[in-house]
Here is the input.
Amino acid sequence: MYCGGIEWVMCFNIARSLIFLGKRRGLVLLNRLLGLGEEESIFLAEESWQDLRELPVTREILPEGLNADACIEVKDLGYALHLSEPAELWLLLTDKYSSQKILPEHAEKWRSKIIKTVHANEADFFPALTEYFSKSLAAELFCESCFLNRAPLYVEERIERLMQLLQPILPKDESILEICCGSGTATQALVRLGQRPLSMDSDRCDLCLAIKSELLDPKRCFVLDARLLPHIFPARSFHTVLGFMVGLIDDFNWPVWRDILLKATSLAKKRVLFTVYTQKEAELIAKALGEAGWRGRIIDNRDSKGIYDQWAYLAEMEG
Here is the structure.
């Protein structure tokens, strides 16, 4: 495959995208955002939200030059470049979520090739990128091979118990961020209550399983280390931040979990809720979040099975 001035990493990524092109049914938000027909293929240089923070591929390919024959400017968010080699597609570049604002110094090269400028707000841009990453994940674009041939563990009794716990706590029509969503089974309690959470997990295989099993909406789930959430969202972006069965938490891993919970809860403007397995875990969370300004209580949610969501911590922000 001839790649001209594009580095081998770019060739490799675009070659993998060719597999995806035949599996891209239902991927429409980016096309709509850019004003392109659904038959047009759009590909991001990066393959994850974390990569959008660090821009490893973008930083690699920009100095080499991109032989684009057309460009769509996404005002203040990025550029989509039309490439003919090694495949005909639109390559979307954005440094919106990175501290490294590297696109402006290269943008002059594309000015003469801009065919239109589209104005999109972040409320539209984020779900479009999220859908792209989710659909790519489910199409196994980012994997050499997939060993997941099972359905998620689905415990109906657990979902019903969570619904009983959540119904008096969560108002309708408020924004919810769910961390550590895993394969999306506990998320079904929120869905059945009419909520539309934005769900995330650091394990791409769990999230892939959830998307393939249609337990999570591809536009409303994403892979990320929860400690990086404040780099994507401003403080107090969500009414509620919650997580089901976070942990297991012990003395050894508590510093990591403490950091995760503090970073995630900085995005909540009203309330936080976490369920855990043991009372000790709930007490650790209560102490850390109390010191961060949350006013909360520990809930004894034990049942005879003694497995899921046995204890919970529920808190509201003081003031």
